[in-house]
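anyone seen this seq b4? input:
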Amino acid sequence: VQLQASGGGLVQPGGSLRLSCAASGFTSDYYVIGWFRQAPGKEREGVSCVSSSDRSPYYAHSVKGRFTISRDNVKNTVVLQLNSLKPEDTAVYYCGALYSSDYNAFCRYGTHFNDAYWGQGTQVTVSS
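predicted toks r here
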């Protein structure tokens, strides 16, 4: 399994970015996938996760109304649209996935799943 993340960068407060994660190697669509972030000196936290079905995605409280996740099961991609960015959104963002249906648990406790898959991080910096 491989997760290839892209799309980070430097943006001013209030700006937008679009992160994309391309997934490959999964043997079925029965997996949850999402975005996590880790700021300097802090633990990795779940930002937004989604299942393979049409259930409403999970969003961390700090990003609700500003970030939007979308998943394409045909292209095996997941995109995170980041709007109204704030300096506190600055972090390395990671794409993660897990063979499971419980995307809420994955987003809340993702770093505790030993069988989770992780992509390389992409830096998001929000600064004027």
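The radius of gyration is 13 Å. The helical segments are 103-109. kinda curious what u guys think
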